Amino acid sequence: MLKLCSLRIFNRLSRNNLVINLRRSHSKIGVIGVPFDKGQLKGGVGSGPEAFRNLGLIEELQGLGCDVKDFGDVTYEQIEGLIVKNMTALGHIAACQKEVSDSVIRIINEGRMCLTIGGDHSCSIGTIDGHVKAKGNIALLWVDAHADLNTNATSPTGNVHGMPVALLAKELSDYWPYLPGMDWQQPRLSIRNIAYIGLRDIDSYERLVIDKFAITAFGMEDIERYGIIEVTNMALRRIDPNNNLPLHVSFDIDSLDALEAPSTGTPVRGGLTLREGIQVMEESYRTQRLSAVDLVEVNPGLGSPTDVKITLEAAKHIIRAASGHSRRGQSPENVLDLPQQTFHSVSQSPHNS
Ligand SMILES: NC(=[NH2+])NCCC[C@H](N)C(=O)O
Ligand SMILES: [Mn+2]
Ligand SMILES: [Mn+2]
């Protein structure tokens, strides 16, 4: 009796879920590739977009029922002679990220979710700038082993992929010198609207800034304590308490454990499992306000062919979750029943043989 009862409840629940499953939001996606590697020193990360295209990413998203428009790869011309202390390749960063920003504005204004394939994490200077310009204000989830919160005065490396959050945050504008070539980029995002997930390799000045400005930051120990779904939802509530802001998820593949995503420039062990990465994206998608996603720091030039394959596959699962793919599976569209079969004679039925 108990069994029958719970079975009925289950059937009712799954019928309701069927209705929910049939409602596909966010099937309109615009994709840009940013084959950019000048935010750090290792070659190879610039071939990320090509590797994802060769893997059939666009076709795969179309196969999920998404309306995908590929806007191709961003190109730019380096600005000569831009020199700022402890900030490598500013002439490349300034020129390329301006183009990225313009592309993101175009895609968002077409009513598409913007999916940006990097490239190193300096690409998010452009994507977030464009997103804010198109939408006014946004909430940002930064999923990363690193805080990417250095200025040129605090960075231990001078690599700009470790600086994008500090360039974007309004509260840090006084801590920067004048940056030639970057006049198009103003710090437009409040620290209140930024949260980190996955941190585990933070420089000392980054720690100081996180504490000084009380930035919402969930490290691995918080994920262990509360679980990834609770952490993601706590982060979303903090950065968007009224549930009304467009959501940007900037996903550095090194947020995943180095065993799950080995082909990346600054791998750190003790990170998210692929399942946890997927869950961050599923919860983000569930808000129905996921408006831009960056997938960065996949470097097909690092590691063995197997390492590269594992990393690309992991990234693909993250992107699928961001595009609305559900691990529960998806019923065929506008179909409510199995195909009926008619048999001409009883003997033809497989059930009678
Ligand atoms: N996007 C990344 N993988 N960033 C790594 C940054 C590493 C270090 N914190 C730096 O400033 O150079
Ligand atoms: Mn990182
Ligand atoms: Mn990063």
Features:
Ureohydrolase_dom_sf, arginine metabolism, Arginase, 11 helices, binds manganese (II) ion, disordered N terminus, binds arginine, 8-stranded parallel β-sheet, Arginase, Chain A, urea cycle, 353 residues, alpha/beta
Q: Could you give the distance between the termini?
A: 35 Å
> Level of helix content?
25-40%
| Series of secondary-structure elements, N-terminal to C-terminal | HEHHEHEHEHEHEHHEHEH
Strands side by side in the biggest sheet: 2-1-3-8-7-4-5-6
The count of domains is 1
Uncertain residue segments: 1-24
Tally of helical runs: 11
| CATH domain class name | Alpha Beta
The hetero compounds bound to this protein are:
arginine, manganese (II) ion
Return the average pLDDT rounded to an integer. 92
Q: How many beta-strand segments?
A: 8
**CATH superfamily (homologous) name:** Ureohydrolase domain
Query: Proportion of β residues?
Result: 5-15%
Rounded to an integer, what's the Rg over CA atoms?
Answer: 22 Å
Shape: globular
Biggest sheet character = 8 strands, parallel
Q: And the CATH topology?
A: Arginase, Chain A
Structural class: alpha/beta
CATH architecture: 3-Layer(aba) Sandwich
